[in-house]
Amino acid sequence: MASTSIFSPKFTPPSKQLSILSSTSTKSLISFFSHLPSTPNPNVNNCKRDFPISKVASVPYQPINQEYLEEEFSGHGVTFEGIGEICVAKMELENGSTASLMLPNGLITSYKAHMWHKGTLELLHTSVSEAEDEDEALIEGGTSLALSFASEEDQHSWSPTSWSLHGVSGNPNDSIKIEMISNDSEGKIRLKHIVTLKQDMLSSELMVSNLKSSPLQMLGGFMSHITVSTPDAIYALGLDRSNFFDRQPIDTEYTIIPPRYGDRSQPGYGQVYGKMTLQALGSTLRSLNKNYADVGRRNSYQSEEDGEEGEEDDSYKQLTEEMSRIYTSAPRVFTFLDRGKRNSITVGRSGFEELYLMSPGSVHEFYSKYAYILVGKTALLKPIMVAPGDEWIGSFFIHNPNSE
């Protein structure tokens, strides 16, 4: 397997890679949309933007054998549907809560939580639109893993782009667990990604095993798009007295960033930020490799365009304005309140020290593609170090306190 990087520009996946609907019919396209949250005008073309960054190697995804997955892993409340070269795995509990994820890219596209009124409410925000050739789908949002690994003995960094289904367990009465694995080409970096659906919670756990003879550096983390009525109606509770750095928006393969983000001429414009790709952050790891003895002293990524350090002074922070911020001392658990939906959720993390919070601002239409808050459980300012032979574990969860 060639060395590749997830920190690439957003793109329309070619047919030899993530060909979502290549060689499929319009019926398949409609079937694919049915697994994802509803978005306005799903048939409107929405081309990806190009970014002037260095090219990286590309690893083709292997087509998914749906029949094998059904025979080997069906039951436990999980069903599979093959669409083109991918497969959608759906987890469903008897109380009505569901979660969907895509294989082989491991993207969690939907989490519908059981509510007190006996219905369900979508908590993740995923945008789906057709590409120009009308045979492929562009997918953004949801919850994704954006990771880059490097060590002293490597010439290039490695990022997981393909996940294999390793196991399914649990039952529809209580909880359902899906395990996925991904290894580098030499088998010296072993990743396990465990997604668990409970009656009032969706959690995701990452296990990193370092089989190399030198320390392993990990950069990135979980990126979760939380659906909202509008950022103007969203309040983050419990972030007061948290230290933060203003940063440019982190642009990974699946993150959503409005095309006019940071445009001063926009009505309601708040703060100015450019776009900083994780490819640029990934270059930090390569620089660290060249001066590995100085890793302990170089513990943050610096940019002249980044904002200043500050301390959050609002315990009831309204996310009306554009913002892109990395909190270095935020609580492990805090709450989002959506007054528009009269709903609240709790998000939490372990293992990751940093909290990335990005709001597209409230200059967009209600319930549109840009009605979301991006929450990241990350290591962006300071890479996580995994010693030779050690294992590191990090996780996040979305808790729905409105089930009863």
Automatic annotation (TrEMBL):
Q: Which GO terms describe its biological process?
A: carbohydrate metabolic process
Q: Biased composition, Acidic residues: where in the chain?
A: 303-314
Q: What GO cellular component entries does it have? A: cytoplasm
Give the region (Disordered) as residue ranges.
296-316
Q: What InterPro entries does the record tag this protein with?
A: Gal_mutarotase_sf_dom, GH-type_carb-bd
Q: Which GO terms describe its molecular function?
A: carbohydrate binding; glucose-6-phosphate 1-epimerase activity
Annotated PANTHER family: APOSPORY-ASSOCIATED PROTEIN C-RELATED, PROTEIN NDH-DEPENDENT CYCLIC ELECTRON FLOW 5
Name of the featured protein? NDH-dependent cyclic electron flow 5
Which source organism does the UniProt entry give? Answer: Monsonia emarginata
